[in-house]
Specification:
Length: 147
């Protein structure tokens, strides 16, 4: 998803503890409270700061006009651009130079970001498992797992 910009359409969050349902919410104060986001994705076009609504791999098959939507988990959402950083243009978006520089920096660090997300997923699994057994201990000697 790093090669695309997204527009958030809906936010879903889990309510009411372990058995709580995932439901639409109008806003959140922390990305950690988000279950997943419904988004429209925009693919980088190759002409600088422009992102297309039609993704290259679909355009040849179905033609112009196909928009791509996804449900993404909160740990794949990296940053929010201010409304002034994005301009809607025909069949896409144009972002400011500062937003483009941020995009390029993220792309240059993609391997590290992928590793960080993998570690985050592992910590989240440990945390959920620990909540189920009531401790963060990962071995029999009583040492707690360092998150």
């Amino acid at each position: 998803m790093l090669t695309a910009n997204i527009v958030v359409i809906s936010i879903y969050s889990k309510n009411g503890g372990k058995a709580g349902a995932h439901a639409w919410v109008s806003s959140v104060t922390s990305i950690g409270s988000v279950s997943y986001l419904a988004v429209q994705t925009y693919e980088a076009y190759g002409c600088g700061r422009i992102f297309n609504t039609v993704h290259h791999k679909y355009a040849a098959t179905v033609g112009v006009g196909l928009h791509h939507y996804s449900h993404i988990p909160s740990n794949t959402f990296l940053m929010v651009l201010s409304p002034g950083a994005v301009a809607v243009i025909q069949n896409g978006l144009r972002i400011t130079e500062a937003a483009w520089n941020s995009h390029e920096k993220l792309l240059s660090e993609i391997e590290g970001i992928i590793e960080a997300v993998k570690k985050l997923n592992k910590v989240n699994k440990l945390w959920r498992k620990a909540k189920d057994v009531g401790t963060l201990a990962d071995d029999d000697d009583g040492d707690e797992e360092e998150l």
